[in-house]
Write a structure and sequence with these properties.
Chain lengths: 98, 476
């Protein structure tokens, strides 16, 4: 069971806002999903039927050489920014609907 | 409807039976006629499609040899970046986002003059199994408008099933290519993790996401897989070990193969009609000379919470980038920067996306990390090991793709946890990074059923070949 305080704490960590009117429903929803996630704590040991000891050929990150290459232009990088100014990302300290 | 659309269309283009422009216009007309009822496409690229078609026609007129997939009208799930074409993830957050680069898969297809008809509908940020969390509205099932096309690549599956697109590319994080393919009666392949570049596929859960083809036939799936599967230095998890499929050896011959049946995939909750269709496929394979080996993974049901814990943890981190500053939705009413970010995210993301971000944040937060994230990672390793053990005994594993046929409209919203549990047969392949394919294997009433084949890493050839044996055995 998750408390309303915990939901608010998690929402803050996730930079999401849950207002008073949504809190009840959000808490119930969180409790339900955490109860579901908690199924993995039902038993200390799990049996997935592994019998053979097979070497793991896990992926290793393939990092390319760190070289300076031609990349995007300043204009392209700012293309999707709503409030670019003078070639920079620009965010006003506050904003109000006009 | 013809099955092997790609090879047939290629020979029609080569013999000049039809021009690429005429072909493209036919597909655009099909979209025009059907899309308002089914909501498969979110963006239609008529101008770009006709321009590419004209280029292909010029090349044919000059006697040039067609490149693989050249001139074939296709579509892309709207979470695959397309330069200068909106890529929205069907979210308010990205509704006007215009990428400045192409995803690697699209760059490769574009270079061989693939004709992009448009972008297809999906659950918001690919989070869902019905396409209903899309801000564009859900995609309907081509066999019954009371049912969903599935998800999250529902638009792609519906577009291929209704022949609004020859083939489509979807993405599969926990079953999002295979499940809608099963619901819509088409073929869906999730390649081995690392076989297809994820560069330019908008991230949901980076250690699970994989782009894959949705097609009308197994041969088509193999051809598209070959075109998109190669090492890409732009994706740190791209794997040079990836192997192309030898199309000349794709004959559906399963004699002598060992095919595993994991008992637990056939137990509780599998709909009788689904069970009987998949069992018929097993009998077909056995009659064709395959040896069926019964295996057991007693606790495989825990794969579902393991998947949701890990995928949501990765999502909570990946979606941290949406802050309204560099791209995407931005709130216009705030009193300080922090409030701007919080309001942007709260207004821009839909309910299911927020639910998953919150779960992911919870399992990564101090005090809960060990009990959830760390434990789920250990279970992921155990599940991988179990599959490695299974593939020491068998060449492939057969299971239902989904325990049910397509959901009724509205089902996933009414019971999200029940909908999560329905991913039981698809998530294990993502957890273990294995290739898996859904192939139509029959009908349950008016709705299609898919059989799933899971293979060992980089054994796409094996599962495509078994899928072909099933495809040949049924009239669908």
């Amino acid at each position: 069971m998750v408390t309303k305080e915990e939901v608010l704490k998690i929402a803050k960590l996730a930079s999401l806002e849950i207002d008073e009117s949504e809190l009840e429903e959000a808490t119930a929803g969180m409790s339900e999903i955490i109860e579901f996630a908690n199924k993995i704590n039902e038993a200390a040991e799990f049996n997935f039927g592994a019998e053979a000891d097979v070497p793991d050929d896990a992926l290793v990150n393939a990092i390319r050489a760190d070289e300076v290459v031609e990349s995007f232009t300043n204009e392209e990088i700012l293309k999707n920014c709503k409030t670019a100014r003078d070639g920079f990302f620009y965010i006003a300290k506050s904003g109000r609907k006009i | 409807m013809m099955k092997n659309r790609i090879s047939q269309i290629r020979s029609m283009l080569e013999s000049k039976e039809i021009s690429c422009t005429e072909l493209t216009k036919k597909y655009l007309a099909a979209i025009d006629a059907e899309n308002n009822s089914f909501h498969a496409f979110t963006t239609i690229c008529e101008t770009e499609a006709l321009a590419t078609a004209a280029k292909v026609d010029r090349r044919i007129a000059e006697g040039e040899k067609l490149m693989p997939l050249e001139g074939i009208p296709m579509s892309l799930k709207d979470n695959i970046c397309t330069k200068d074409i909106v890529t929205s993830c069907c979210s308010k957050m990205l509704e006007d986002f215009v990428p400045i680069y192409d995803a690697t898969v699209w760059a490769a297809l574009k270079a061989s003059n693939a004709v992009l008809l448009g972008k297809t509908n999906l659950d918001e940020f690919a989070m869902g199994s019905s396409s209903e969390t899309s801000v564009c509205g859900g995609t309907l099932n081509p066999y019954s408008k009371d049912h969903v096309a599935g998800g999250s690549s529902g638009g792609s599956a519906c577009a291929v099933a209704k022949n609004m697109s020859v083939y489509s590319l979807g993405s599969d994080t926990g079953g999002s290519v295979r499940q809608p393919s099963s619901f819509c009666g088409v073929v869906g392949l999730k390649p081995t993790f690392g076989a297809v570049s994820r560069y330019g596929a908008i991230s949901y859960a980076s250690s699970f996401d994989q782009i894959g083809p949705i097609t009308a036939s197994v041969d088509d799936a193999a051809e598209v897989f070959n075109a998109i599967s190669f090492y890409d230095e732009m994706d740190a998890t791209s794997d040079p070990k990836t192997k192309k499929v030898d199309l000349t050896k794709l004959d559906g011959n399963v004699r002598g193969m060992k095919i595993g049946v994991i008992r637990e995939f056939f137990e509780n909750g599998v709909k009788p009609g689904v069970l009987s269709a998949v069992n018929n496929s097993i009998k077909t394979l056995s009659d064709a000379g395959a040896e069926i080996v019964v295996l057991s993974m007693p606790d495989i049901k825990y794969a579902v919470p393991v998947y949701y814990i890990l995928a949501c943890a990765e999502a909570s981190s990946n979606l941290g980038r949406f802050d309204g500053i560099r791209y995407g939705y931005k709130t216009d009413s705030y009193s300080n920067i922090n409030e701007m970010i919080v309001k942007t995210r709260s207004e821009g993301f839909g309910k299911e996306v927020k639910r998953r971000i919150l779960l992911g944040t919870y399992v990564l937060s101090s005090g809960y990390y060990d009990a959830y994230y760390k434990k789920a990672q250990a279970m992921r390793a155990a599940i991988k090991q179990a599959f490695s053990g299974a593939f020491a005994k068998v060449d492939a594993i057969i299971a239902p793709t989904v325990p049910t046929t397509a959901f009724k409209n509205g089902f996933t919203e009414s019971d999200p946890i029940e909908a999560y549990m329905n991913d039981i047969c698809t998530v294990p392949a993502n957890i273990a990074g294995l290739p898996a394919i859904s192939v139509p294997c029959g009908m349950d009433g008016a709705l299609p059923v898919g059989a799933q084949l899971i293979g060992n890493r980089f054994c796409e050839q094996t599962i495509l070949n078994i899928a072909k044996a099933i495809e040949q055995s049924i009239k669908f």
